[in-house]
Amino acid sequence: MATADPQHAASGTAGQTAQEEFSGKVVDVLNAASVALFTSIGHRTGLFDTLAGLPPSTSGEIAEAAGLDERYVREWLGGMAVSGFVTYAPDGARYSLPAAHAACLTRAAGPDNLATLMQYVGLMGGVEDRVVEAFRHGGGVPYSAYPRFQELQGEENARVFDAALVDTILPLAPGVTDRMREGADVLDVGTGQGHAPVVMARAFPRSRFRGLDQSEEGIAAGRAEAEQLGLDNVGFTVGDSTEIPGTYDIVTAFDVIHDLARPAETLTAIAAALRPGGVFLMGDIAASSNLEDNIGHPFGPALYGFSVFYCMTTSLSTGGAGLGTVWGEQTARRMLAEAGFTRVETHSVEGDPLNLYYAAAKD
Question: Domain 126-361 carries which CATH code?
Answer without folding.
Answer: 3.40.50.150
